[in-house]
Fold:
Amino acid sequence: MRNQLSLFLATTLTASACYCSGQQLVNGRKSLVFENPAARLVVDVSGGAIGDFRFKGEELNPLNWATPKPGDTAVRGFGHFLCLDRWGPPSDAEGSRGMPYHGEAANVEWQVLRDVTTREGLIESEMAAKLPMAGLSVRRKIRMSTTSPVFTVREEIKNENALGRIYNAVQHPTVGPPFLNESTLIDCNGRRGFAQGGTLPTPEEPSFFWPQALNQDGQSVNLRHLTGDPNPNVVSYAIEDAYGWVTAATPLSGLLIGYVWKTSDYPWVSLWRDVGDGKPAARGLEFGTTGLHQPFPILVKKGRIWDRQLFEHLDAGETTTKSYTTFLLKIPRDFAGVESIKVSANRLLVRERSGGKPREFTIETAGLSPN
Structure:
């Protein structure tokens, strides 16, 4: 009876636990900090990057890539940032007029519309940014579970121009050391893919299927792994399921970070790889509205790849909404990677890759699954 009462009290306290936090200076940078008993999330205001997502009380931050040093207050992207209104380079004419690589969203100061607070059983906040050259604005709502290491981001993108225009939106999460090492496993549910660098009219040739890719020498490479050779550098895959997902797992550290989203929001997943001093330096887990890393004139000329559009259109004053869910998972040292992720309203079911009976891991999302 005593054990049952203790279990009841522990469960009740855990379910009602919250924490919360709010606006803080993190390494001298204005930030929104979300905290619950399971995890800590830090979102930068100067550029909007999600720069830190880790288990509560632990040091390992998977999104430790291009992280500003203490005292560096420059407005720029790092960790996980938003590419908007484009993915990749501007045209020569746009670049000469000041349009940055990957667009303005990570290069402008964001405004906090609502501080971190607890509302409707979730920890949430809102922020927004205006992109003056693109003529777009983006309003972001972040909602975090009060008990689990999971959060969702919902972004409303509005065309503020008097005329319609094309655009792209790509999420750019990147994992780096010490989380990233030679043992890190990348998994996703991309299907058919191609390596960036091809030329018109067929930049998508030759194609291949996940997890294989072809490098510049025509050799087959398994993209689940990265050791000392980053060739091919960027590879994009089309998603065929209702939901897209991508994960990075480092079994030696017992940690996995994952993303899930609706394919109707983001039909492409793109993986980029970087090496420094012969060791893995970065792995991008990008997902977005395009799979071709080129300026708009080339995207317009190409139009589609495998009957998938390479850009979207927003009419004058029109708004579109896109969202994704991010989670952390503790994994055993013999974890073999992710085979699949099943999405339901209140949980994510992660199934391990296995030749025998696969293990399954459940993440309670408190309604924060992508919808």
Remarks:
- The longest strand covers residues 319-330.
- The chain has one domain: 21-364.
- The chain is about 5% helix and 45% strand.
- The CA atoms of residues 24 and 153 lie 20 Å apart.
